[in-house]
Amino acid sequence: MSEDARARLARAQGRVVASLVAGAPPPEGFDAGRLGVQAAALVAKRRGVVARLRPDAARAAGPALAAEFAAYAAARTVPPPGYRADADDFAAWLGARGLMPAGKPRRWTRLFRRDRG
């Protein structure tokens, strides 16, 4: 594959990723509905892991967790680098909105790892 072809492929892949995680319009030739479904699934996956890593944040959001996390995710052009950062950023986002109680959070990583294996 030529360098030019690789560069075109990389740009095309970047547009797909931007559509999935940053709300960018779908690239030409892609089904907007299907990309939307996949983007929602990725947000739901992130939300589930974040809720396991920071159950205090999930409790603070309460029944509005799905809506709060969707709003948080939509407010970012790029997800944080890793689930722990995502969980802590979500808790901080809730705190800035007055939904998260003040105080130092309990760390749940060890419990999460124990549950996973």
Explain what this protein looks like in three dimensions.
The N and C termini lie far apart (42 Å). The chain has helices spanning 3-21, 32-53, 55-61, 65-74, 83-96, 109-116. 68% of the residues lie in helices and 0% in strands. The mean pLDDT is 88. It has one domain (3-116). With 117 residues, it is mostly helical.
In a few lines, what is going on in this structure?
With 117 residues, this protein is mainly α.
Radius of gyration: 17 Å
Strand content: under 5%
Helical stretch count?
Answer: 6
Biggest sheet details: none
Give the helices and strands as they follow along the chain: HHHHHH
| Unreliable stretches covering 5 or more consecutive residues | none
Domains counted in the coordinates: how many?
1
Mean pLDDT: 88
Shape: elongated
Helix content: 55-70%
Q: What is the tally of beta strands?
A: 0
Protein name: SCO6045-like C-terminal domain-containing protein
Organism: Nonomuraea spiralis
Domain SCO6045-like C-terminal: 10-95
InterPro entries: SCO6045-like_C
List the helices and strands and how they pair.
Blueprint: H1 3-21, H2 32-53, H3 55-61, H4 65-74, H5 83-96, H6 109-116
